[in-house]
Amino acid sequence: MDTIKNFFKRETVFCSSIVLAVGSAFIIRPDRAYLAYPDYRTLALLFCLMMIVAGFQDLGIFSSLGHILLKRVANTRSLSMALVLLCFFCSMVITNDVTLITFVPFTIMVCRMTGQEKQAMKWIVLETIAANLGSMATPIGNPQNLYLYSAFQMTLGQFLIAVVPYALAAFLLLLLILWIGKKEKLETEKIPAKRKERVPNFPVRLTAFLLMLILCLLVVFRVLPYVPVLVCVILITLAVNRKMFRCVDYFLLMTFVCFFVFIGNVKRVPEVESLLARLVSGRELLTGILASQVISNVPAAILLSGFVSVIPQLLTGVNLGGLGTLIASLASLISFKLFSAGFPKQGGAFIKTFTLWNLVFLSVLTALAFFLT
Question: Which of 43, 114, 198, 270 is the most exposed place for a label (fewest CB within 10 A)?
């Protein structure tokens, strides 16, 4: 029983998606139409990108980047900027959750080595905000972007107009907050040196994962079809490091599938489909923000996309909706769990600090969104 409870706590969104899919299957009995529900292109891209990012992480690319930047810091202000902005820009390529998994433990370690434990909470909260907002700037930065950009064949121009103003505003706001922070001399000699660990066949593996990333980007921008690229990624990974198959978040993929089933079934009930469309239509931005606060922004994007006509506004809404509550973006839960593990007695204080800063950013960016739209 405890195992089941722990699984439900760990994979709450996945379990909820199963309940919705199975419940809707009692209304619309499974048939051949179910096969048309999933967006296979998005699922394939998500699978490939998760494996590629895991490959880069296994090679130590991201932690090496962090250590290189830290060699150039001299005070707490520059250290905070290096850590937070590293999360902002890395999340554009390696996604917000992988960014936080990589750099939150690194931040805790650096804070302890430099005697800055009191700053750890604020910096990690800002890192989380930076990762959630930086990831909005590219189609591959987070799952909801990849899904909406791919499934609805958005042009790059449409995508950039929907997200870049807010990513830029977030960047400037982060800079302002970091700049007015304390500027104390830092004992840089205490910053831990990067451990030199020999990675077998490093050049070959790095080249292979770079090649796979380029192929996936060509799929994202609709230059190549996804099926041949999926096959190439699987074969290359089998050849260079088959352990990466274990690093894929299969529960996230299955969550997508379950939501596709639920949406497909709901759209086959005319009365329900019409009601939801009326409720969401014209309110895509606000609905995306509010729904994300309750069910998080990835499932909100999948659910609402079946009932909206203005996809760019929904894209903006679910990205800004990653701010706010702790569950608005599942990546935020990663930061909370990692911080709580490092500072067991400060979990409640983290939630208060997290909520305060998130509300500040959400208020500013939502006001900007309503002004621009």
Answer: 198
